[in-house]
């Protein structure tokens, strides 16, 4: 079997990459350097960097995911796509000069709540005035699920780890406000997900 066939693969990334790109093409049109928090398999990074060549796309994740990200980057070498940075939101963030946008997909419900708090605080410190933060994933509104599938997903998440779970939109907005981020958009996405946008 070719080593390329052993790359990590997420069907969810494959399914949602074009709907997300539809919005990023507009939201990041005037951005120059993006930090992706939690690059996972690396599939999103490859797809978005290829479609948005004006952006310098910096991948990042916990060290255990770096090998898979590097495999994707090796198969799709792009001049604007950068190798994974070690980023644990609960620890010291890497120094990145000139980052004016942050993207993160399907991370807030995987992290424990204190880590979500650190995510927003770190982004608030990192972004310059006018910088953009885009967060993709499932959300609850008013403490209520938006679909039966999201409720089932939340039960599954908490069975894996009680610290996980779909986050409340209102609580995320409160974290953003504390971090100096102003809400700009809340976009409905396929499969009962949302794409939230804040501006520094």
UniProtKB/TrEMBL annotation:
This is Methylase. InterPro entries: DUF938, SAM-dependent_MTases_sf. Signal peptide: none annotated. Transmembrane segments: none annotated. It comes from the Bacteria.
């Amino acid at each position: 079997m070719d080593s390329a066939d052993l790359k990590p693969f997420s069907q969810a990334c494959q399914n949602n990459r074009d709907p997300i790109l539809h919005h990023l093409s507009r939201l990041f049109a005037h951005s120059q350097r993006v930090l992706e928090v939690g690059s996972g398999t690396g599939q999103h990074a490859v797809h978005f960097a290829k479609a948005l060549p004006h952006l310098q796309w910096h991948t990042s994740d916990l060290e255990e995911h770096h090998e898979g990200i590097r495999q994707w980057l090796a198969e799709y070498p792009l001049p604007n796509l950068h190798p994974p940075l070690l980023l644990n939101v609960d620890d010291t963030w890497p120094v990145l000069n000139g980052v004016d946008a942050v993207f993160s997909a399907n991370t807030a419900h995987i992290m424990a709540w204190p880590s979500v708090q650190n995510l927003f605080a770190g982004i608030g410190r990192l972004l310059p005035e006018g910088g953009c933060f885009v967060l993709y994933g499932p959300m609850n509104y008013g403490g209520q699920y938006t679909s039966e599938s999201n409720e089932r997903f939340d039960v599954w998440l908490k069975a894996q780890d009680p610290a996980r779970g779909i986050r409340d939109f209102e609580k995320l907005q409160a974290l953003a406000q504390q971090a100096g981020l102003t809400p700009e958009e809340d976009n409905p996405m396929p499969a009962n997900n949302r794409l939230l946008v804040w501006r520094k």
